[in-house]
Amino acid sequence: MFKKLNKKKNQPNQSDFELDLHNIPEHVAIIMDGNGRWAKQRKLPRIKGHYQGTQTVKNITKVASDLGIKYLTLYAFSTENWSRPENEVNYIMSLPGTFLKTFLPELIENNVKVETIGFLEHLPNSTLNAIAKAKEDTKDNTGLKLIFAMNYGGRAEIVNSVKKIYDQLTAKGLSSDEITEQMIDEHLMTHAYPDPDLLIRTSGEQRISNFLIWQVSYSEFIFNEKLWPDFDKEELINCIKIYQSRQRRFGGL
Ligand code: IPE
Ligand code: IPE
Ligand code: MG
């Protein structure tokens, strides 16, 4: 079925294939990268790139919801991003407030449920309030789960999980022999979600940058060349077609 080759690159040309609506990845995770470079290309301040990136979030959420994706996890701010200049960090922290004001009615209309992973306790109150409102107003929605990773870091998440397990075991007088993969999994912030089927990183960078490092053990990785503000429906559909052309083996044959 996927035999047609693009002669130039000797690779299947994904746009030649139909999207298989019966094989849509259940959980798509995206490292939304390239906002700064998008702004730089236009000689704009970096924060303009972040603003434009939120427009892509709106667009891609709608497309994901229409395609029947069940979980969309978006890496919005990492535990390492605090090292950026203060004005940039402050601007990113203000985005949930400004962006959710206009986006929330659309999310409700599309039956989208907003959730988060990350160390939210370290966020400014105004950011927390905006996120809390979005969660509250969408809590009964049963469609796409839109999960924002805010102040998220995979290593810190695993350390936290292990600490919780340690406390539980010592309280019960049990030893580390009891620790299983399932226990670590259940104490992660993602415990309620299946592992991502597909991980997309935009902007051409090919690294994981501390995102869901435990959970992507068997995810399909796609590194897309577009800068996040330029990522659109066509690109997402192409990524899903590439995903559909792959064979997942999970260590088997
Ligand atoms: C991703 O875009 C958004 C965040 C990390 C918050 P960047 O801001 O990293 O954009 P580049 O990588 O500098 O282009
Ligand atoms: C990863 O992008 C974090 C987010 C997209 C939120 P970065 O731009 O921070 O990653 P590095 O620094 O290039 O690895
Ligand atoms: Mg970046």
UniProtKB/TrEMBL annotation:
Which SUPFAM superfamilies has this protein been placed in? Undecaprenyl diphosphate synthase
Keyword set for this entry?
Magnesium, Metal-binding, Transferase
> According to the UniProt entry, where is the signal peptide?
none
Q: Which GO terms describe its cellular component?
A: cytosol
Pfam entry (one): Prenyltransf
- The residues the record assigns to binding Mg(2+) are 33, 220
Entry's EC annotation: 2.5.1.-
Molecular-function GO term, any one = ditrans,polycis-undecaprenyl-diphosphate synthase [(2E,6E)-farnesyl-diphosphate specific] activity
Q: List, alphabetically, the InterPro entries matched.
A: UPP_synth-like (IPR001441), UPP_synth-like_CS (IPR018520), UPP_synth-like_sf (IPR036424)
Q: Does the keyword rRNA-binding apply?
A: no
List the active-site residues. Answer: 33, 81
Provide the cofactor note recorded for this chain's UniProt entry. Binds 2 magnesium ions per subunit.
Under HAMAP family, the record lists:
ISPT (MF_01139)
Describe the family membership recorded for this protein in Swiss-Prot or TrEMBL: Belongs to the UPP synthase family.
Described purpose of this protein according to its UniProt entry = Catalyzes the condensation of isopentenyl diphosphate (IPP) with allylic pyrophosphates generating different type of terpenoids.
Question: What name has this protein been given in UniProt?
Answer: Isoprenyl transferase
UniProt organism field: Staphylococcus shinii
